[in-house]
Design brief:
302 residues; alpha+beta; Alpha-Beta Plaits; 2 domains; four-stranded antiparallel sheet; 4 strands; 7% strand
């Protein structure tokens, strides 16, 4: 058993070393495929980051009446925080609302002049609510419009924002669906390219395979060297791909973070380095073995 395995490995390695041009072509295709699948994984993380940032901008504001003391507002905030439909609740006091308005419109002399003429703080305290999903805003608003809160709440701006909220969540859902379908399509295309490349390499050795069949070699013995070649090519391709992505993420991360603050590709890559290595090894070796098995099958049929 061990002697046969040793012979299979030796024949596979010799064939791998001998077929220089074909081997390089196989490794090149595998590297492209591994890079593509790794890119899908990383882009999925980036898209989830972008989607979460978009969804963070979506909220509903509940404006409280002028005379309501802060402890009652904080009690309402606590009640909302305990709802499963609520993702987060932020309390904005009258003073904070005024500061934010001044900060945002400090370069607008007309608005600043109007604020000075009013002489008092015209803003109301508010609670900014983010729901876990767009459909859950209806439930939250229904809760806030109960009679118990009539004396607390001045206005809920949900219905003014509803078209925008629905549109944003529709876009993010479409992004996720399109990303998933595109990933499946690219993986299938990659597999077909690898399969055809390896099939071509095996076709060039068809006479050698026929001779082995004539002398009584088993299917396992004939298939073994090609599987060894697939494993070696896949492993080398995975190492090359890991080097490419490590270097690329390290170089591009500062530039991407400059464009999208808080989006650190290098940090995301290093945090998921073991998953990336597993994906690359599984893709390289798996594609090499599976493609070799399928490609040689027709030559093993009696």
């Amino acid at each position: 058993m061990w002697i046969e395995l040793k012979r299979i490995y030796k024949m596979g390695w010799q064939s791998f070393s001998r077929d220089g041009g074909t081997v390089i072509a196989n490794i090149f295709i595998l590297v492209l495929t591994i890079c593509l699948i790794t890119s899908i994984f990383l882009l999925r993380g980036v898209s989830q980051f972008i989607i979460s940032k978009i969804e963070e901008k979506v909220d509903v504001s509940v404006y409280l009446k002028e005379e309501i003391p802060e402890p009652e507002i904080l009690n309402l905030k606590e009640e909302l925080s305990q709802m499963t439909e609520v993702k987060s609740v932020k309390y904005v006091s009258k003073e904070e609302a005024l500061e934010e308005f001044i900060k945002r419109h400090k370069d607008d002399p007309v608005l600043m002049k109007s604020l000075e003429e009013i002489g008092t703080n015209p803003f109301l305290a508010s609670l900014n609510i983010q729901a876990a999903a767009s459909a859950q805003y209806e439930t939250i608003v229904a809760f806030l419009t109960e009679p118990d809160f009539e004396n607390l709440i001045e206005k809920v701006d949900y219905y003014q924002r509803k078209p925008v909220i629905d549109r944003i969540f529709s876009i993010t859902n479409s992004m996720e669906n399109v990303g998933f379908l595109l990933s499946i399509f690219l993986i299938l295309v990659s597999f077909l390219i690898v399969l055809n490349t390896i099939r071509l390499a095996i076709y060039n050795l068809r006479e050698e395979i026929e001779i082995q069949r004539l002398v009584g070699a088993s299917n396992w013995f004939i298939r073994g060297p090609f599987l060894v070649q697939g494993i070696i090519a896949g492993f080398i391709a995975a190492i090359i791909s890991l080097f490419i992505f490590t270097l690329s993420c390290w170089i591009l991360s500062p530039k991407i973070e400059f464009l999208f603050s808080d989006l650190n590709i290098w940090k995301y890559f290093t945090q998921n380095i073991f998953i990336v290595i597993l994906i690359q090894l599984a893709t390289g070796i798996g594609l090499g073995v599976i493609s070799s098995t399928i490609a040689i099958k027709k030559y093993l049929e009696v």
